[in-house]
């Protein structure tokens, strides 16, 4: 079966000469939920920005390939690639710029040509999936940070992506908002790649984890296996929160 996301031997250096990726391979299949872990400077953001063509060999020196459901990430395919790959950035204000929640969520599908009742249905379905349908006519800047993050997720879901990429989804959320977002993400029927430093969140939501360090994939296995490999964790500057022990988490509560 063709992977939803197929990254092969991806290398990339920025114009200043900094080499950020060295021959990265990453394959994510339909329905998988994968956490991308690694210390700061590991190359995680550089990798994510290749997934929908924000970075490419044309913006620096790159080799290798990225494809989404068999479609290569190239300039001529960017419109369709950016529909298929929905990236939710760390700061929701990078994605919310219209006068109302409804207008923000409608922006992407409208640019694809959706109009009228079909557009309204797409918008409300996306907002309903993140529990924000009652806020459709509110200005985004009147919402809490956690609510804005949920709306940012809805703007991507409205595009009906084949893979949802989340950059640090739990950052800056209070405990209640963090839990609410986890419940929402757990309930979505979508392939998921989650970039995070929040290791308990990765364990809660993603059955598989890939560790990127110094621009290379150094581990790819179950999230439980990664987080309980003390030597791996120490070697790549991955630290669990004080008092959190994945070995104490009931196995039947982990994602399958």
UniProtKB/TrEMBL annotation:
Residues 5-239 form the ABC transporter domain. Signal peptide: none annotated. GO terms for cellular component: ATP-binding cassette (ABC) transporter complex. The lineage of its organism: Bacteria, Bacillati, Actinomycetota, Actinomycetes, Propionibacteriales. This is ABC transporter ATP-binding protein. One of its GO terms (molecular function) is ATPase-coupled transmembrane transporter activity. The keyword Transport applies. Transmembrane segments: none annotated. Keywords: ATP-binding, Cell membrane, Membrane, Nucleotide-binding, Translocase, Transport. Coiled coil: none annotated. It comes from the Bacteria. Pfam families: ABC_tran. It is found in: Cell membrane. The keyword Membrane applies. Belongs to the ABC transporter superfamily. Its main location: membrane. It comes from Nocardioides albidus. One of its GO terms (biological process) is cobalt ion transport. Part of an ABC transporter complex. Responsible for energy coupling to the transport system. It is a peripheral membrane protein.
């Amino acid at each position: 079966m063709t992977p939803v996301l197929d990254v092969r031997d991806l290398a990339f250096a920025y114009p200043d000469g900094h080499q950020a990726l060295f021959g990265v391979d990453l394959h994510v299949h339909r329905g998988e939920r994968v956490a991308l872990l690694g210390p700061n400077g590991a190359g995680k953001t550089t990798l994510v920005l290749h997934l929908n063509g924000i970075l490419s060999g044309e913006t620096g020196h790159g080799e290798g390939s990225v494809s989404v459901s068999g479609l290569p990430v190239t300039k001529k395919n960017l419109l369709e690639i950016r529909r298929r790959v929905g990236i939710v950035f760390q700061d929701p204000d990078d994605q919310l710029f219209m006068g109302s929640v409804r207008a923000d969520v409608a922006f992407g599908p409208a640019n694809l040509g959706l109009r009228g009742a079909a557009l309204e249905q797409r918008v409300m379905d996306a907002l309903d999936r993140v529990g924000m349908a009652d806020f459709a006519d509110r200005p985004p800047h009147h919402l809490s940070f956690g609510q804005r993050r949920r709306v940012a997720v809805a703007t991507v879901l409205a595009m009906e992506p084949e893979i949802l990429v989340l950059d640090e989804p739990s950052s800056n959320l209070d405990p209640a908002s963090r839990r609410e977002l986890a419940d929402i993400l757990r309930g979505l029927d979508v392939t998921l790649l989650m970039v995070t430093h929040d290791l308990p969140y990765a364990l809660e939501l993603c059955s598989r984890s890939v560790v990127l360090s110094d621009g290379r994939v150094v581990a790819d296995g179950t999230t439980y296996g990664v987080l309980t490999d003390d030597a791996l964790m120490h070697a790549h500057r991955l630290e669990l929160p004080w008092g959190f022990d994945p070995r104490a988490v009931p196995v039947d509560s982990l994602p399958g």
